[in-house]
C-alpha cells in the first residue's frame, strides 16, 4: 500500500511539469511576435501617442515630417494672437536657407518677428517632435514711455535742446535729477542701454563718474557698462563725455524711479554752456550679419542700430 501511494504522487508531478513548459513557450512566442509587430519599418516612421493623437487619443503612425511653425500671442494679453514671420536654422546651420519641415530629433533655433509692434523673439535649440508644432510663443509689445525728469529743487525739467532750466549750483557741486519712466500698460521695453552724455564733459569728475544712473525704487537693475562712445551714437558736442548703463526691462503699467547723479570737478562748474542728455535704447533679438547666428544687443557687430525704440530726455543748465 505504501508503494502504491508513492507511485500516485509521482504521477501527479509528471502531469504538472509538461503544462508549465507549454505555458512558458507560449508566452515567449507571444512576446517575440509583439516585438516584431511594433518595430518601425523605416527610420522616417514615428509613433505619436497621447490625447493629441487622432480623435480617439490612441496611437497614430505618422509617416510625414512636420511643418515648422509657431503660434504667437501677446505676452500680457492671453489669447491675443500676434502675426509673425519666422526664420530658422536646423542643427545650427544657416538661417533662411533650410527646408520648411523638420525630422523629429533635429534641433531648431527660431527667430520670430512681427515688424514694428512686437519685439523679436528667439526660440533656442528647440528639439523637433511629431506633435510639437506649432510652437507656442509669447511676444512683448513695444512700449511708449512717459518720462519726467526733475531739477534738484523738484521742478519738472523741460525736455528739449536749448531750454535752460537747471540752476548752476557752483564749482564742484553735485546734482541729483529725479527721473520717472512709465511704460504704457501691457507692454515691455526689454532691456535698455542708456547713454548719459555731458556736453561739457571736461567739467565733470572722473572719480566718482561724472554721471551716474541708479534705481531709486529698486524696481530695475542698473549696471555700469563703461565710458566708450558706441560707433552708432553721435554725441551732441565734440567735448562730450559718455557713460553707459544697462537697465533691466521695464514692464508697462507701473512707474520706475531713477536718479541721475552729476558731479562737477574741483574748480569747475556746469554753467549755461553745459548740457545733459539721457538716451535709452532697447535690446533686440536679431541675426548678426557676421556670425549668422542670433544676437541680443542694441546694435549688430557692424555697428548698425537694431533698437526698436529710443527714449530720450535732454536738459540744459542755466
Written account of the structure:
A hairpin with a 6-residue loop joins strand 17 and strand 18. The longest helix has 37 residues, at 2-38. The chain has a six-stranded mixed sheet, with no helix packed on it. Helix content is 12%, strand content 35%. The chain folds into two domains: 58-139, Immunoglobulin-like (Sandwich), CATH 2.60.40; 145-317, Immunoglobulin-like, CATH 2.60.40. 27% of the residues are buried. The protein has 318 residues and is mostly beta strands. The protein has one helix and 19 strands. The chain is elongated. It starts with a helix and ends with a strand.
Describe what is shown at a glance.
With 318 residues, this protein is mainly beta. The chain has one helix spanning 2-38; strands at residues 46-48, 60-62, 70-74, 85-90, 107-113, 121-127, 135-139, 145-149, 164-166, 174-183, 192-198, 211-215, 222-226, 241-247, 256-263, 275-282, 284-287, 294-297, 310-317.
CATH topology of the largest domain: Immunoglobulin-like
Number of strands: 19
The CATH class of the largest domain is Mainly Beta
**Residue-averaged pLDDT:** 83
Question: What are the salient characteristics of this protein?
Answer:
2 domains, 4-stranded antiparallel β-sheet, 35% strand, Immunoglobulin-like, 19 strands, mainly beta, 318 residues
Task: Give the SSE map.
Elements: H1 2-38, E1 46-48, E2 60-62, E3 70-74, E4 85-90, E5 107-113, E6 121-127, E7 135-139, E8 145-149, E9 164-166, E10 174-183, E11 192-198, E12 211-215, E13 222-226, E14 241-247, E15 256-263, E16 275-282, E17 284-287, E18 294-297, E19 310-317
Parallel strand pairs: 3-7, 9-19
Antiparallel strand pairs: 1-2, 4-5, 5-6, 8-10, 10-15, 11-14, 11-16, 12-15, 13-14, 16-19, 17-18
Amino acid at each position: 500500500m505504501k508503494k502504491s501511494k508513492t507511485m500516485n504522487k509521482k504521477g501527479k508531478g509528471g502531469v504538472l511539469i509538461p503544462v508549465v513548459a507549454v505555458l512558458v513557450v507560449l508566452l515567449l512566442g507571444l512576446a517575440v511576435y509583439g516585438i516584431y509587430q511594433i518595430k518601425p519599418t523605416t527610420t522616417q516612421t514615428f509613433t505619436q501617442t497621447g490625447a493629441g493623437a487622432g480623435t480617439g487619443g490612441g496611437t497614430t503612425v505618422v509617416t510625414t515630417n512636420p511643418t515648422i511653425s509657431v503660434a504667437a500671442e501677446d505676452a500680457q494679453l492671453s489669447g491675443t494672437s500676434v502675426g509673425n514671420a519666422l526664420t530658422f536654422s536646423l542643427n545650427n546651420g544657416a538661417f533662411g536657407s533650410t527646408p520648411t519641415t523638420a525630422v523629429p530629433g533635429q534641433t531648431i533655433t527660431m527667430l520670430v518677428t512681427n515688424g514694428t509692434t512686437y519685439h523679436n523673439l528667439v526660440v533656442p535649440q528647440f528639439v523637433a517632435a511629431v506633435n510639437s508644432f506649432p510652437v507656442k510663443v509669447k511676444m512683448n509689445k513695444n512700449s511708449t514711455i512717459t518720462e519726467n525728469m526733475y531739477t534738484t529743487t523738484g521742478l519738472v525739467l523741460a525736455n528739449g535742446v536749448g531750454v535752460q532750466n537747471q540752476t548752476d549750483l557752483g564749482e564742484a557741486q553735485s546734482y541729483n535729477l529725479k527721473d520717472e519712466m512709465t511704460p504704457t500698460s501691457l507692454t515691455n521695453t526689454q532691456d535698455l542701454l542708456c547713454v548719459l552724455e555731458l556736453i561739457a564733459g571736461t567739467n565733470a569728475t572722473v572719480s566718482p563718474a561724472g554721471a551716474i544712473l541708479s534705481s531709486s525704487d529698486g524696481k530695475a537693475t542698473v549696471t555700469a557698462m563703461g565710458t566708450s562712445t558706441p560707433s552708432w551714437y553721435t554725441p551732441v558736442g565734440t567735448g562730450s563725455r559718455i557713460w553707459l548703463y544697462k537697465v533691466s526691462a521695464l514692464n508697462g503699467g507701473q512707474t520706475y524711479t531713477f536718479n541721475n547723479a552729476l558731479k562737477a570737478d574741483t574748480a569747475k562748474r556746469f554753467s549755461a554752456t553745459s548740457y545733459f542728455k539721457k538716451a535709452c535704447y532697447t535690446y533686440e533679438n536679431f541675426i548678426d550679419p557676421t556670425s549668422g547666428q542670433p544676437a541680443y544687443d542694441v546694435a549688430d557687430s557692424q555697428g548698425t542700430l537694431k533698437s526698436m525704440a529710443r527714449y530720450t530726455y535732454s536738459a540744459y543748465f542755466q
